[in-house]
Amino acid sequence: MPKLNRWQPLGLVALVGLVFLFGWLPSGMLDDSQRQQKPQLYLSVTGTENNASLTTLAEDISSRLAARHELVLVPQASPSSWRLFLSINQQQRIVIQAELTAPIQTRDDQPRVARFVVDGAENAAPNLSAQVVDMTLSEITSVNE
Question: What is the C-alpha separation between 103 and 145, in angstroms, rounded?
Fold first, then answer.
């Protein structure tokens, strides 16, 4: 009996370690996007094909979104990801038309769509990208709260 009592604390520690291990391992039929706690965002940009300054603006928006810790940029759209479609045009001013679609939770759910327009002079391009990122994040965080 004295030898058994010496091993009892080690057995208890091993049992607790197994409980933690099973709690940490993924389980169920959830895919990776549903297991993640951060909202995922798919970004699609059109209208920048022939203009280097608009391409730079689109890259700036993408890098600002990627740098934010509130969400994760994904390379492909999925039913559980937010979708942000940007159309960037330039006449006298830069106009960014954005459409943000929320992920669909159930089959009967209608997608929630937010549309906004940001425009300004060409020399204010960094401010325009910051406005797009701020408006996108405020919409996503308001729905997720």
Answer: 14
DSSP-assigned letters across all residues of 46-93: ES-TT-HHHHHHHHHHHHHHHH-SS-EEESS--TTSEEEEEEEEESSS
Q: Are strands 94-101 and 82-90 parallel, antiparallel or unpaired?
A: antiparallel
Is 11 within the bounds of a domain?
Answer: no
Nearest alpha carbon to residue 68 among 2, 119, 145, 136: 136
Query: pLDDT for 53-96, tens place per residue?
Result: 889 999 999 999 999 888 889 999 888 889 999 999 988 899 99
Residue 36 located in a structural domain: yes
In whole angstroms, give the CA distance from residue 107 to residue 67: 32
Residue 64: inside a domain: yes
Cβ atoms within 10 Å, residue 56: 13
